[in-house]
Amino acid sequence: MATALQGPEVDPTSGFLNAESRRIAEQNRAESARQRRELNLQRENILSQRTSNPARRTALVAALAQIEAQIARLP
């Protein structure tokens, strides 16, 4: 049985992924999509905020950079 950290198991006779590997791959894709949606919502929230306070603006820019870095690291 494959785990999320191992590569997918391929049936050597047919060359296709087995059912367990397909299920794990789908779970990984779903989790990645959920994380991407969550980070994009956070990004949109930061972009929608308006402030004239320079310290607050600096904090928002830093938070935006952090979120965009997390989005870039997603598969």
Q: Provide the structure class.
A: mainly alpha
Oligomer: single chain
SS field, number of helical segments: 2
How many domains?
1
Number of strands: 0
Helix content: 55-70%
Over all CA atoms, what is the radius of gyration?
19 Å
Strand content is under 5%
- Characterize the largest beta sheet: strand count, sense, and whether it forms a barrel: none
Order of helices and strands: HH
Low-confidence runs of at least 5 consecutive residues: none
Shape designation: rod-shaped
- C-alpha end-to-end distance: 23 Å
Provide mean pLDDT, rounded: 84
Structural overview:
This protein is mainly alpha-helical. It has one domain. About 65% of the residues lie in helices and about 0% in strands. The chain contains two helices and no strands. Helix 1 packs antiparallel against helix 2. The longest helix is centred in the middle third of the chain and has 30 residues. It is rod-shaped, with a radius of gyration of 19 Å.
SSE arrangement:
Blueprint: H1 19-48, H2 54-73
Helix pairs in contact: 1-2
Features:
single chain, 75 residues, mainly alpha
Short description:
This protein is an all-alpha fold and 75 residues long. It has helices spanning 19-48, 54-73.
